[in-house]
């Protein structure tokens, strides 16, 4: 099942909000520096419209229950919850360019996490080719402006993707993308098409999915994540708004103990290169489905 990896962890850092970018990224950079490990950061290239998620309270089954468990107000702060509602949404990448550049300067990877996180998450399933490509062109253009080079990696907001996005990634020189939940890297099939663009799924649950269920404090939750690791390849997604904020202690303990147990951390771009060298990547279908603890659908590796 796992393609030749031994006790490897790919740490994927999702930035969802402007606050997460400004405050959470520096917190995580210093945590990674302390442990001497590298990670892959994914940043929305457009505005923070977190406030739009407020409408999910009314439209999404299970959202209220989860919001209570995660502590939405403590996690995001009132101001962020107003972005796109009463306050204009700030530009996440453009207003924080020095932080973005610091990610790369410290040896980490920086990829794209959509243009508008909320918009992508809620609508990408319904978008046709034209709309999907328009959004991805816009996000790629900002990335190119900031870094002076073409993007090589993408992680779908909310793990929602469609076949038009996969086609765009294949046609535009991406090395891999990470849009799904699953077990191990694969070449995706979606909407009846097959794509030669490596897909690296998130294999572990996220903290917001298990908080209050697998544990309630940093110690019990880090133990839960450690016990969920396999001896092959593990991809863990953390969020700047959670592990880069009040759950930093949980991630810190997880990293420290997993290093003691002989695990190594690698950037997803390096994991992608290894997958290609090993040349034994299976083809799998991407389907929409559900994961425990998460409101709404996600894209999943069919197993
Ligand atoms: Zn996200």
Structure description:
By secondary structure, this protein is an alpha/beta fold. The chain has one domain: TIM Barrel (Alpha-Beta Barrel). Helix content is 41%, strand content 15%. It has twelve helices and eleven strands. It has helices spanning 18-35, 56-59, 63-70, 72-82, 97-105, 117-123, 129-147, 163-171, 207-210, 218-228, 248-260, 268-278, and strands at residues 8-14, 40-43, 109-112, 153-154, 176-177, 187-190, 193-194, 233-239, 264-266, 283-289, 298-301. Strands 1, 2, 3, 8 and 9 form a five-stranded parallel sheet that branches. A four-stranded mixed sheet has the order 7-6-10-11, with no helix packed on it. Strand 1, helix 1 and strand 2 (40-43) form a beta-alpha-beta unit. Helix 7 (129-147) packs across helix 8 (163-171). Bound molecules: zinc ion. The site of zinc ion (ZN) has 5 residues, from loops. It comes from Syntrophorhabdus aromaticivorans. Residues 7-266 form the NodB homology domain. GO terms for molecular function: hydrolase activity, acting on carbon-nitrogen (but not peptide) bonds. This is Polysaccharide deacetylase family protein.
């Amino acid at each position: 099942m796992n393609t030749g990896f031994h006790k490897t962890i790919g740490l994927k850092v999702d930035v969802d909000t402007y606050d997460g970018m400004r405050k959470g990224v520096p917190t995580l950079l210093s945590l990674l520096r302390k442990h001497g490990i590298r990670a892959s950061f994914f940043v929305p290239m457009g505005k923070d419209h977190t406030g739009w998620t407020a409408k999910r309270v009314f439209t999404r089954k299970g959202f209220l229950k989860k919001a209570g468990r995660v502590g939405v107000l403590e996690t995001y702060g009132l101001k962020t919850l107003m972005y796109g509602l009463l306050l204009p949404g700030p530009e996440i990448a453009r207003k924080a360019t020095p932080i973005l550049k610091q990610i790369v300067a410290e040896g980490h990877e920086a990829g794209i996490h959509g243009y508008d996180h909320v918009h992508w998450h809620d609508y990408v399933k319904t978008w046709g080719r034209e709309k999907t490509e328009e959004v991805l062109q816009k996000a790629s253009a900002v990335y190119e402006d900031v870094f002076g080079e073409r993007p090589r990696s993408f992680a779908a907001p909310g793990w929602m993707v469609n076949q038009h996005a996969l086609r765009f990634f294949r046609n535009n020189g991406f090395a891999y993308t990470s849009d799904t939940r699953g077990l191990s890297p694969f070449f995706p099939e979606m909407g009846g098409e097959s794509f030669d663009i490596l897909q690296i799924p998130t294999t572990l649950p996220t903290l917001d999915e298990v908080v209050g269920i697998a544990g309630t404090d940093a110690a019990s939750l880090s133990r839960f994540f450690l016990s969920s690791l396999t001896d092959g390849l593990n991809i863990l997604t953390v969020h700047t708004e959670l592990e880069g904020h009040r759950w930093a202690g949980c991630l810190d303990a997880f990293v420290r103990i997993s290093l003691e147990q002989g695990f190594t951390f690698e950037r997803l771009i390096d994991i992608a290169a290894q997958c290609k060298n090993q040349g034994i990547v299976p083809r799998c279908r991407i389907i929409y489905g559900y994961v425990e603890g998460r409101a709404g659908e996600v894209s999943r590796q069919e197993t």
